[in-house]
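fyi for ur records
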Amino acid sequence: MTTSYQNKNGVNPYLQQKILSASPNQLIAYLYEAGTTACRRQDKEKALKAVSILVKSLNFEHREIAGTFYNVYRHLRRQISKGNFQQAESMFSELKTTWSQACKVV
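which gave:
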C-alpha cells in the first residue's frame, strides 16, 4: 500500500508549504532542481516550463546580469527543444550549485 500525500486538489501539502515559505533565492534553486529532474526524466514540457519561469523571474533593472542569465536560459531552452536532455540536465545542475553557493541556499 502506498500513501499519497496529496489533498483533494491533488496538491502535496508538504511541498506546497515548502514553496510558500521559501525565499525568492530558494525558489530559484527549486526551479533549477525541477529542471534537472525533468531533464533526467526527459520531460520536455516540464523542463521548458522551468526555463520559462526562470526567464520571467529575471529583473531587467539589472540589465547586465539579467542579460547574461537570459542568454544562458535561451541556450538551455534550445538544448531541451533539440532533445539534448543530458546537456540540459548538466546545465541545470551547475546553475543550481553555483546559485546555491552564491546565495548560501540549501
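The chain has one domain: 13-100. thats all i got for now
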